[in-house]
């Protein structure tokens, strides 16, 4: 089983980044994947331009947003409806599972 590329995009001080990190860590644990992912500061000038326009926090798995969103022009706070302002656990689990299954084919 190969591990997909997982990125947590946020800016320093983002009030919702901690909740997104906890959801991501729980999803990885559920699937028996290593708790490894890239923490990317979307405000860092060294961050690739294609990652700087995602709202904070966003979780990408192999470059795809787990919640089905798209990058915007500029960054801001991301609000996830009906949650603690993090993607729902089942969305993250499903995205990770799909990525692992695709890599195994």
Structural summary, described in words:
The structure is a single chain. By secondary structure, this protein is α+β, with helices and mostly antiparallel strands. The protein has one domain (6-104): Glutaredoxin (3-Layer(aba) Sandwich), CATH 3.40.30. The chain is 32% helix and 14% strand. It has a four-stranded mixed sheet with strand order 2-1-3-4, covered by helices on one side. Helix 1 (17-30) crosses helix 3 (89-104). The longest helix is centred in the last third of the chain and has 16 residues, at 89-104.
**Overall outline:** globular
Number of β-strand runs: 4
Average pLDDT, all residues:
90
Taken as a percent bin, the fraction of beta residues is 5-15%
* Largest sheet: number of strands, sense, barrel closure: 4 strands, mixed
**Straight-line distance between termini:** 10 Å
Q: Given the helix and strand composition, which structural class is it?
A: alpha+beta
CATH architecture: 3-Layer(aba) Sandwich
Q: From the alpha carbons, calculate the radius of gyration and give it in angstroms.
A: 13 Å
């Amino acid at each position: 089983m190969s591990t997909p590329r997982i990125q947590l995009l946020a800016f320093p001080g983002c009030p919702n980044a901690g909740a997104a990190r906890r959801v991501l860590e729980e999803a990885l644990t559920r699937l028996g994947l290593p708790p490894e992912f890239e923490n990317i500061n979307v405000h860092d000038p060294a961050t690739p331009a294609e990652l700087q326009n995602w709202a904070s926090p966003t979780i990408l798995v192999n470059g795809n947003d787990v919640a089905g969103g798209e990058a915007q022009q500029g960054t801001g706070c991301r609000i996830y409806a009906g949650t603690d302002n993090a993607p729902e656990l089942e969305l993250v689990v499903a995205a990770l599972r799909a990525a692992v299954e695709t890599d195994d084919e």
